[in-house]
Specification:
The protein has one domain (3-139): 3-Layer(aba) Sandwich (Rossmann fold). The protein contains 5 helices and 5 strands. The chain has helices at 14-29, 49-62, 77-88, 111-116, 124-139, and strands at residues 3-8, 32-35, 65-69, 92-96, 119-121. Strand 3, helix 3 (77-88) and strand 4 (92-96) form a beta-alpha-beta unit. The protein is globular, with a radius of gyration of 14 Å. The two termini are 15 Å apart.
């Protein structure tokens, strides 16, 4: 049985989509079946926002882990919702923050997000290691 990962993060421009797709490839290469919201939903229009919401919620419900891009001065609001929902559902959460900007001297991201993470990766190599550690812990 394969493990499933929900890939969360902003995807409103080509750079954000390139980044989240790079994360998805890394997670898939680590052996996970992935749910990527902009790939696994129809193109958004005014008639299907509820369908997209339900699909994304189901993607979180069915996943083992959530990997979220947290870059930016403020984390994307949709990503924050996805993480809060996943945390409440008991999912394993890995945040990826490669951005050097900080809002607070003692926090990488908002404390509510940071404290809900099982692991906060600071690079793609660190994310790869976090995924390896996770698969090793569930296989033990």
């Amino acid at each position: 049985m394969s493990m499933k990962a929900y890939i969360a993060g902003p995807l409103f421009d080509e750079g954000e989509r390139w980044w989240i797709e790079s994360i998805e490839r890394l997670v898939a290469d680590a052996g996970f079946e992935t749910f990527l919201p902009h790939r696994d939903n129809p193109p958004k229009d005014q008639f299907n926002v509820r369908t997209i919401f339900e699909n994304d919620k189901r993607g979180i419900d069915e996943c083992d882990i959530v990997v979220a891009s947290l870059n930016g001065v403020i984390t994307d609001d949709g990503t924050a919702w996805e993480l809060g929902y996943a945390y409440a559902r008991g999912k394993y959460l890995i945040g990826l923050h490669t951005d050097w900007r900080r809002r607070f001297p003692d926090e990488v991201v908002n404390l509510m997000l940071e404290c809900s993470m099982h692991r906060l990766a600071r690079s793609l190599d660190d994310l790869r290691l976090a995924l390896t550690e996770y698969t090793g812990s569930v296989g033990a």
